[in-house]
Specification:
Chain A has 246 residues and is of the alpha/beta class. In chain A, 34% of the residues lie in helices and 22% in strands. At the A-B interface, helix 3 of A face helix 1 and helix 7 of B. Chain A binds a DNA duplex (30 and 30 nucleotides) through helix 5 and helix 7.
DNA sequence: CGGTGGCTGTGCGTGTTCTCATCGTCGCCG
DNA sequence: CGGCGACGATGAGAACACGCACAGCCACCG
């Protein structure tokens, strides 16, 4: 089931209307903090654990709808944790966190069951998007919720990664796509450059803050070119997207 | 009976609308885990057992619509298990798992009864496809559910392994066929190279992800050659297939 | 042995990301 | 009302990663 909050954000809810529950497992406190904050912002209920045993215990009584699981835990192997989790919660989808270089290695088979993974360092938008996808497909949320974001005559399909305005197809690069998704998930709402940087770029991004301006400019060229603009600048505050009409 | 989920995936259901039930029997935990995960994702209900006695017991009260049975079990010979299974569930189809070098002639006799087998190491797409076939043919699911996938003017018959585009027959190798089937079972949806690798290649495949790129290029040559392309690259995300028109 | 199918490795072209620098513009304040 | 300073937009181009082609190897099979 989906509802639309007063802010215009679309929230995932369970069939009974209660908030989605997510368990976050990572041994680095900074990561669990970061994720908990971001996921709570989605309107979800979050519980976190720092190791495998804690994860199993928490899973037992928290009964989450999805789990974010770091593959590198201090007390036990990621696969062992996965196995025990599965015994507790057979159908719960898992989003794995892995180091960039450790990939390809033991990841084989993990995405096969409808699970998914992201590599560290990740961007919060990416984690949230994948989690939403997993939850949507697992049936923990209402299955009618679809994967298309719409703002005015602009549409973005999260499954096919397709974007079009007024029926005309628009090609975006990966970063442009993530940025636009973030804007469109928060329509009519000013997003500061800091917020955008924190959500759309990976958490270890050390670069210049003006990449945001740059990518906004790219987006405008592709989306607003020769049309009524939908992306607006609020000088000193940030950017927002809204339907061209209003 | 088949239903189509919001994602466009087609699910097998029993005549009464309840999910199909599958029993997985293997002594290696990693295998049962892997299979359970993948088969659950198909929307099926899974129970697993690690040996012959467990299998018989579980079969008795779980009453599965199909069984995946490793021929090499610790406690008893595969044929013995099969016999006892048959006493419990006379009509249930069985998918045998065997080692590559195992005597194929002995297995060959077994498949005469409408059963089937795959050799280890297998790919998940293969196991899922065979199981679907077995269940469909056994009548546990609606018999009218057919075996043809269609995307635009491209058709793929899972029974006859025939592929054609715009009526023109296309010859594919085994790997190409599996890859195309996976794409066509998830139309208009971006599939990452990792997902593809996990589903289409065998679980012990240690190679590089660029085999996927290679086989995509093979498929394009055969399917998209000189026509409106149906296979699309989403740089940094993966591949997807969609009808040429849209 | 020739043919087919499956895969590895490498190298190239190009798309993508990001930095730096410059130019434009908005708004404040004298 | 005019000018200045801060902020934002945009152009150029460097560095990098990604996707893809090509060539060759191995295994299997008739």
């Amino acid at each position: 089931m989906t509802t639309t909050s007063p802010q215009g954000r679309t929230e995932l809810l369970r069939p009974d209307g209660s908030p989605v529950r997510v368990l976050v497992v990572d041994d680095e406190l900074s990561i669990t903090e970061l994720l908990s904050m971001a996921l709570r912002y989605e309107g979800w209920q979050i519980r976190s654990a720092g190791d495998g045993t804690g994860a199993i215990q928490t899973a037992r009584d928290f009964r989450p709808d999805a789990v974010v699981l770091d593959m590198m835990l201090p007390d036990m192997d990621g696969l062992t944790v996965l196995g025990r989790l599965r015994r507790e919660l057979p159908d719960v989808p898992v989003l794995f966190l892995t180091a960039k270089d450790a990939v390809e290695d033991r990841i084989a088979g993990l995405t096969a069951g409808g699970d998914d993974y992201v590599t560290k360092p990740f961007s919060l938008e990416e984690v949230v998007a994948r989690l939403r996808g997993l939850i949507r497909r697992s049936g923990a949320a209402d299955r009618r919720s679809d994967s298309v974001l719409v703002v005015g005559d602009l549409t973005l399909d999260e499954d096919s990664h397709e974007v079009s305005r007024a029926g005309e197809h628009i090609h975006l690069t990966a970063t442009e796509f993530e940025l636009l998704r973030f804007l469109m998930r928060n329509p009519r709402r000013v997003l500061s450059k800091a917020q955008i940087l924190d959500r759309v770029w990976s958490y270890d991004f050390g670069g210049q803050a003006n990449v945001v301006e740059l990518y906004i400019s790219y987006l405008r060229r592709k989306i607003d070119a020769g049309r009524e603009p939908m992306i607006h600048t609020r000088r000193g505050a940030g950017y927002l997207i809204k339907p061209a009409a209003s």
